[in-house]
Amino acid sequence: MSSPQDTQSGSGESNGSGARPGTVLIGFLVLFCGMSLILFQAGIRPFKDGVLPEAISTYADDIDMLFWVIMAITGFFFVLTQVLLVYFCVKYRAKEGETGKASHMHGHHGLELAWTFIPALILFAIAVFQTGTWGDVKFNNKFPEKDETAYEVRVMGLQFDWVFWIPGPDGKWDTDDDVATKNELYVPANRPVFVYLQTKDVLHSFWLPNVRLKQDLVPGRTIRQWFQIENNENRHTVGRTFQIVCAELCGNSHTSMGAKMHVRSEDDLAAWIAKQNETQPWRGKSRHMDLKYWRETSTESE
Asked: Can you tell me the distance from the alpha carbon of 178 to that of 174, in angstroms, rounded to the nearest whole number?
């Protein structure tokens, strides 16, 4: 008759279900490959147009470069840690007949210093490396100078629409030829576009994926941002339409808060503005339902 101790010792080579440690991992790999094959056969290709959406602005390439540098660094360490994880799981797995408890290491100052300072140095290097690009996109004192070629847009976010407002042919705000649209933004190519962002109600986030611009709208603040869409032999943007998205959870219809950005030539844009002046049934900010909430501010926030 076996003693309780013998029975306990004899069960050391099983985890209770009889499955070996690598069985679960292999099962996950088979499941992942099977699901990938099903999606491929169904014609679903998440990255058929690339990992990132098409880049169309002057600073988009710099931002994409930062993305890939950070992806390479994090990807390297992810693969390294997963390979080491699998290696140690296999190397130090319980051998047949072994019944003792695993030994534990309770500290190694060298390793602890290494996995603290090396990531910290890498993060510091990334922070310094990206400062120039971040400043070009976000710092007001590094924006292009606002001259007669600049195109200005006031943007009002509200649940669950975007309202865009531009000065008319006279180039002045709050006059009878101002033009407002809802969920339709018309912009030129090859000259700076300055957007002044406000929200009527809650936090929203103005995201132009193809431009690589994303900025939160904060109640009580006017936030200025800029971009310039390129149109040349390498990037054909004029006559095309791109997506505008709210990237901040702002209510139960957040997912429907989208708009379109139409890139037009100078002649087509001028003709569109003239047509809006003929067809819009209102004149001036005070008679527009949403823009009457626009707050005049003496300063513009970054």
From this structure: 7
